[in-house]
Amino acid sequence: MTFEPAPSGRDRRDDGRRASLTAMIAAEPDRLRRRSISLGVAPDDAEDVAQTALLRAWRSIEQLHAPEPGQMCSWLDTIARNAAADLARQRARRPVAALDDDAPDLAAGTSVAGDVELRVILDGALGAIRGLPDSLREPLLLSVVDELSAPEIAERLEISPAAARQRISRARKSLAECRESGMSEAS
Fold first, then answer.
1. What pTM did the predictor assign?
2. Distance set, CA 181 to CA 31, 41, 101, 117, 185 (Å)
3. Higher pLDDT pick, 48 / 107
4. CA distance 136 to 38
5. Do 96 and 42 form a contact (C-beta atoms < 8 A)?
6. Would you tell me how many other CB atoms lie within 10 Å of the CB of residue 93?
7. Which of 50, 122, 123, 146 fits a 20 to 30 Å CA distance from 180?
8. Each residue of 13-44: pLDDT tens digit?
9. Euclidean distance between CA atoms 178 and 128, whole angstroms
């Protein structure tokens, strides 16, 4: 995700906050997309949520109390979490059925029951992943979706590589337990 700030005559007193935000996004352009995925947003929607979060952050930069990098990260994470929640609420109000070019051809003997069963399994898996605590879900998704190694995950999450491996292992174990119990949501 690239971010080019739009010139604006309404740049209020931001004490360098916009410059800090721009530098943070330039240094790690996929951060908000990855955060969106770790919050349970589908990878296809993660870029939209990340852009919404960034736009909201840009517009409300004056509300950031302290522009230090750690506090800015937390503030951005909160905005991303709210954008993800807004998308979930919007989808709950207006569920959208995806149109597939590969729609089953009933005349060719494709089993609708098989497709429904697969969808139920996939929905259960997604629910189980969403049910994982953030501390387990985020390292797992960084490992599986972004294909990062344990040392890379450790660096990104500011934990030790051993802790990253342990969290990934716990997440996989929890998902395996869900699978054995019928793919219900993790507790």
1. 0.45
2. 34, 24, 33, 16, 10
3. 48
4. 10
5. no
6. 7
7. 146
8. 556 788 888 888 888 888 889 888 888 888 88
9. 7
User: How is 41-63 classified by DSSP, letter by letter?
Assistant: --HHHHHHHHHHHHHHHHHTGGG
- Amino acid identity, residue 130? R
Tell me how far apart the terminal alpha carbons of the chain are, to the nearest angstrom: 34
- 107-128: burial string, b at 16+ Cβ within 10 Å, e else: eeeeeeeeeeeeeeeeebeeeb
Beta strands in the chain (DSSP E): none
Determine the Cα–Cα distance for residues 7 and 51; give it in Å rounded to an integer: 18
Q: 3-state DSSP call for residue 118? A: helix
CA 109, 112, 117, 122 dihedral sign is: positive
**DSSP 8-state symbol, 30:** T
| pLDDT at residue 1 in the model | 54
Query: 76 Cβ partners below 8 Å, 6+ apart?
Result: 21, 24, 31, 32, 35, 53, 57
Q: What is the pLDDT of residue 162?
A: 93
Return d(Cα 26, Cα 3) in angstroms, integer.
7
Q: Quote the pLDDT of residue 16.
A: 79
Give me the pLDDT at residue 127, please.
Answer: 81
